[in-house]
Design brief:
The chain is of the alpha+beta class. It is built from nine helices and 13 strands. It is 26% helix and 32% strand. Strands 1, 2, 3, 4, 5, 6, 7, 8, 9, 10, 11, 12 and 13 form a 13-stranded mixed sheet that branches. The two termini are 28 Å apart. Bound molecules: coenzyme A.
Length: 314
Amino acid sequence: MSQVRVRPAAPADAAAIAAVHCSHVETWRRGGKGEPAAYAELSLYDRWLHGGPWMSAEMYASYLRRWLRAGHVVLVAQREGAVVGEAELVENREPNPYGPALHLSLLFVHAACQGQGVGRALLKAAEELARERGCMALTTQPEQPARPFYSRVGFASWLRLREWQARAREIPLAGRLAPVPAALYPEGRGLVLRSGRYQCARHAWHELLFYLPLPEHTRLPWGRWRVESPAGEVAWVGLRAQPLEPSQCDGYVWALPQADLAPLVDVLQVQAARLGFNHVDLLLEEPEGKTMAAERGLECQGELVLWRKTISEQ
Ligand SMILES: CC(C)(COP(=O)(O)OP(=O)(O)OC[C@H]1O[C@@H](n2cnc3c(N)ncnc32)[C@H](O)[C@@H]1OP(=O)(O)O)[C@@H](O)C(=O)NCCC(=O)NCCS
């Protein structure tokens, strides 16, 4: 079998990367689950419903441009000049134990090229990049079917989180709240993603707003705020509608590891009510999540596990 070459992706790779993802869709359907339809007949939103921005060259071009502008990385694997796989990575500078790490938010190999060493080659390149950047680990949140692959290439289960659902509610808040929709990630402040670790802190910040050219998304609410406690402690919180369940949103908190989470969750519940949501989902670590859930009567929605691979010096 011919050799796999891995290189950083450029905006011109968007169509080839989208093709890698589309190769996994057996049947295209109207509305994602309706009757079968030709790909060319589907709207951008119908395509998105099959797996996100990777489902069409136009959408992914916009996603990739924004991703690269933010300083994140995409690696592509090529064989005989054709793109056969890709990996998307975010440098995560959160304090120990979360970082410094290179977070793999996505890894995909063309359906016709699985089981031929492409995934392993992408991970090897990611590991070299992590080492160059002084990261101690690769982290990821693998889907169930990919877990045997991650075990095989040296990852192990690392962090278990639970998602809890809180009711949106109006209560009096202490401290100050200022909207910061367009702010850059507050680098170098020792912040930790205390709620919403679906991926990592910087990824959550980047993905909060709806930026794809989809009218179905641009009308969905989201928001980000800087919160200052009466004692002068600063944290950031964010809310983002769940596109398929728009009466609900996901709640994010970027704060110091020792900051009291309770008043920040209060802010999320209040802002959720003000934006018109019924509920806000909080993805929290144990034991903090369990304690908060008991105190507030939160309902468990499910579990999520992050995996990690420690990077050796050489
Ligand atoms: C998961 C995925 C990235 C793996 O890439 P790949 O190119 O097929 O895997 P490789 O051929 O590089 O496999 C590397 C090793 O893992 C093993 N492996 C791969 N998939 C495996 C599986 N499902 N079960 C057990 N072992 C597996 C291979 O046997 C190989 O072991 P070896 O080198 O000791 O022989 C790829 O199959 C894929 O894109 N799947 C669909 C999308 C997906 O699930 N992505 C991950 C989202 S989190």
